[in-house]
Every structure is written in structure tokens, then in C-alpha cells.
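Risk register update: the risk of archive-format incompatibility is retired. Evidence:
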Amino acid sequence: MRPVTLKRALRRLIVLAVLAMLAALPAAAAGVTYHYSVTSATYSAQGDLAAGHFTQQCVGIAFWEGKLVTKAQPGTAAGVAVLKIHGHGTSGEVDADIDLKSQMENSFFRETTSCDQSETESGFVLLPCPKTIDSVVHVAALIRGGVGTRVSLSWEFDQHEEDGALLPDSSCVEPFDFPYKKGVCKSYATLFQLNRKHVVLPFHCSFTTTTPPPGSKATKLTAAAFNSGTLHLTRHP
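Archived output:
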């Protein structure tokens, strides 16, 4: 019999520890279902937009730009989640609603209203657009995983029944449409994290575009939107 070296003994201890961890995972029990309540959340988002309408004539040239800053109202999050662990992997979903308050900052609309014979601007209108918006964001996440210990979460955000909005609808004479790409905002977690009594699920999305949306007056546009936050879950016994 070969002597047990210190290196071999340490290796055995590591293997035994890994096996013990895997045995403690909920995935070891096929058909297990966990239920959670959303107890709190953080949410912040910002949209930045600069757009212009350019014509062959001097009159009618317009610019509008600004920033929309969105924050969660404390103590307003509510929702549920479920996680199912079965022989072929893991699935589940999260649904929550969060009350938000948004503020338009440094937002304005400017349009040329008259020009002289040399097509030089002689008059314009400039409208500042401060505005506060109350809204509710619906946060949903699909949980998917194989037979391993890692799962992916695909996040979606909807506001005012508008599919895929990180921020509420807003306007400054012209609509402020911020970009969003459905189904590409993802994060990851482990079954160890989801098996805890208190679970924190972070998210972060960021999107940009230079394409004016259909029906927009803009002939040039640059827009960006991003959000970040966390959902706090409590696992039911």
C-alpha cells in the first residue's frame, strides 16, 4: 500500500468537501420547488437623449435634449418568485412591482420660428421642460439552468403597459424614447445563493441607439438608457 502523502491527503479532503457541498444542494433532490416573497428592492435608472429635426429651410429646425432620472420609492416593492429543481435542470420566475419617481433634468426644446432673407435665424422658441413623473415598473426574470449549479436570469422591465421600458414615458414637446432590447439583459446566480433564507438578485442593463423611433420628428438622434438595482427575496420554509 502506498503511503498517504500530505498532498494526497489534502486532495482527498478537497474531494470529500466538494461531494458534501453537492449533496447539500437542493438540486440533489429532484422535483423540489421553492417559493419566495419579494420583501424590498432598489431601482435606479437614467435616460439621456439629444435629438434634432433638420430641414432644407431655416424655419422649423429644432433641437431637444435632456435627462430623465428615476429612483425607487422606498418600501413599495412587492412580488413573488418560484424556483423548480428537477432532474433535467432548473427553472423559475420572478415577478415584482416597484413604485418609482422620475425627474426630467436639464431638458428643453428649441425651434427656429423665423429667419431673415439670408436664411439666418431671427426668432426662436425655447421651452424648458422640468417634470416629475410617478410610475410603476414591473420587473420580471426568467430563471433557467442545466444540471449544474449555475443559473441565468433574463430580465425584463415594463412601465405603463409599455413593453420593455427601463424608464417611464416622457416628453419635452417631442417624445423622449429611450432604447431597450428585449431579452438580452442577463445576470447569473448559483443554487447556493438561491437556497439561502434571504436572497439578493442584482440586475444591470445598458442600451444605446442612434436610430430615431418610428413616427419620430427627429432626423438625428442619440439616446442611451441604463438601470441597476436589486430584488430582495425571502424564501418560504
